[in-house]
Amino acid sequence: MDHKFPYKWKLSDGYPAKGIDYHGSKVFSCFACGGGSTMGYKLAGYDVIGMNEIDPKMAEVYIENHHPKYAFIEPIQDFVKRETYPDELYNLDILDGSPPCSSFSMAGNREKDWGKEKKFREGQAEQVLDTLFFYFIELGKKLQPKVIIAENVKGLLQGDAKSYVKRIMQAFQDAGYKADYKLLDASKMGVPQKRERVFFYAIRNDLKYDAIDMFGDQPRLNLEFNEDVIVFNSVSDGSGTELSNLYHKRWLQRSPNDTSFADITKRLEGVEKCFSDVLVHHNRVSPTITSKGFMVDFETGLRLSDKCLSLIGSYPMDYKANVKMAYLIGMSVPPVMMAQIAHQVYLQWLMVNGSLKESECE
Hints:
Elements: E1 26-30, H1 36-43, E2 47-52, H2 56-66, E3 70-72, H3 76-79, E4 94-97, E5 117-118, E6 127-128, H4 132-143, E7 147-153, H5 162-175, E8 177-185, E9 196-204, E10 240-241, H6 245-252, H7 261-269, E11 278-280, E12 295-297, E13 303-304, H8 306-312, H9 325-330, H10 335-350, H11 358-361
Parallel strand pairs: 1-2, 1-4, 2-3, 4-7, 11-12
Antiparallel strand pairs: 5-6, 7-9, 8-9, 10-13
Helix pairs in contact: 1-10, 4-5
């Protein structure tokens, strides 16, 4: 199977991906985490000049692997209040961000957590997660990049959370942008993982040209990929670690249609638990890697290795991390997923709006 961007790759391979031209469009990434989106932009020929991240441990991992020119390790609420920024941040092609999204996740408490302060892990400050998207758009209003791209969970489009989408769209409008959003599935974009995420994309009002539908205010951006799916059997090398005795006993009682240990515990114990501990079938696309729980090979009963998780998440095989890879990858945008989007944004929007350097246009 041929895919535009390889899911098996290394940082040492260099950027951009084979067959993709370097154009150097400038990106700044907020909520940068381990750099999943950053790697996607670089694979697609961009120059990611800096990052903002609240978690010092994550920032340390990011800096070691990506060596940003600018690194702001602070809450975005503080970052957006700065009076000045480096000149390059006022001349961005893309402002990128993945605001923390557990408040909207269907696997979380949703409405019960809205408006409450919480934090992900040790070392992070408490913050109201469902307001972070608006600080991000406020930063966009200050910096005025050509394009703003933001990623969030599928749950944002479901139930009462849809009211937040209306507020987000209004915030983009108030910031001077035409915006739209689309639910995308990574498994149709060359990623060996079924991961559905909502992507918001907005273009500055003065760059309308033909990207704006003449009969409406939404920007036009073709994000149809439909690449061949990659089933787990194509990714797995059979490596992994053994389960605990309790989990092994549960695994022995699995049924063909079980997708997580919750299916097994419901059948055996009458209680659904261990939702985040999933079973990966060889003839199916891997389910979403989450920051909690673990993944188990349905056939062998082995917990998936970091190498296998990296392949499923399209993370580079030589990535250096001082945190658990499952957490890191579960919190990140798959690099190949972002590379696909970034490549189309360049071809359909930025290239038309003068992103090419003068020397390349001569």
